[in-house]
Amino acid sequence: MTDYPKAMRNIPHKSSGLTLIELMVALTLGLLLLGGVLQLFVGSRVTYTTNEALARVQENVRFSSEELKRVVRGASHFGFCGMRPEPEVHLDLPGGGWIDAVFNETNGIIGWEALDTGIAQSVTIDTSYPIGSLNQWAAAPRQVSGLTPTLDLPDVLTDRVVADTDVLIVRELIPIPGVSTTGTVDPSLNELTLDADPGLAEDALVLITDCNDADLFRNQGSGTTLSRATGSSCGSCPTNLSPVGREWSTVSTQVVQLYRVQISAYYIGFNDNREEPGLYRMDLSGCPCGAQPEELISGVENLQALYGYSLPSTQGGDGKSVDPGRWLTADQINDWWPVIGVRIALLHRSPDGAGLGAGEVAYELVGTRVVSPSDGILRQGSASTIAMRNRVMYDD
Hints:
By secondary structure, this protein is of the alpha+beta class. Helix content is 16%, strand content 29%. The strands form 4 sheets. Strands 1, 2, 4, 5, 7, 8, 10, 11 and 12 form a 9-stranded mixed sheet that branches. A 4-stranded antiparallel sheet has the order 14-13-15-18. Strands 3-17-16 form a 3-stranded mixed sheet, with no helix packed on it. It starts with 5 loop residues before the first helix and ends in a 9-residue tail after the last strand.
């Protein structure tokens, strides 16, 4: 061990460490670095949230567009028929009201216009999404009687439709292949016998045609038997007329086409569990009708529709193109037969805030100005113009 002189052993060693100023500078630099990292994290999080919301909304836009295009395009077709046979309607229609309009054999499509939401009018979204009363919608379709009374929304939609949004009802004919009648039909009988089981549900709405004639009825038979017997009550929707004194019209040939008739209402409803609006579909062709609505797409806030009207050739039109100024709201149409196309616009929203800045945004949905609130929700409008297939093939 080194033996230092006594004088040197009394000299204190120099202490090592940071001064207060150095410590403050280090803390400041650390805070600046941490702030930069946090800002980068927040920015990345906002970008991720926005992109995720955008992807969700765009997926819903594609799905809703394809669904509505599919059903509207086929709303008025009669399958392989090169003509439009006038069906013999065996349904017990009341002679007026929405039931007459929806189940009228000539109405492949019909809509209800939310009042004060027409072309050049403005609507502000109420994020409580209140459900409207039936008299907040109007349509004026021609009835079997020839009248065009203004009709409220069908009562099967009571307490279901979000206010300030339009409603669309579409009839599809879904072909059932591989079946035909077994021979000449006695037109006075209640039943038709098929050569195969069509697999129809009880009380299914059915159309059968041989392209010269057609019959529309609610099937009361089972297996290979079709029956137009009266049947039991279907709630708001019609059952068959008494077959007494009535005859089948589809009797001219053994070759027929059978269809299941699907009538669906499309509307904006509200999901109480998620507290979110969405696009809903309700089956009106079942028995009872309107019993099982289903949510197709969540996050749809608004639906607006216009209908393309083409006059027949006897009235100066061509029946194949929409006449100038003839894109109309549902309450402007008296007769739905000359409608050959539909413009449908939807407003979609993300389920949560997307980190967007506050501020109102206005969207134009086929002529209606829809204003969103300042809530930071990502929204996107979509619109489709759809030709009704058999409507643009004829000019009568």
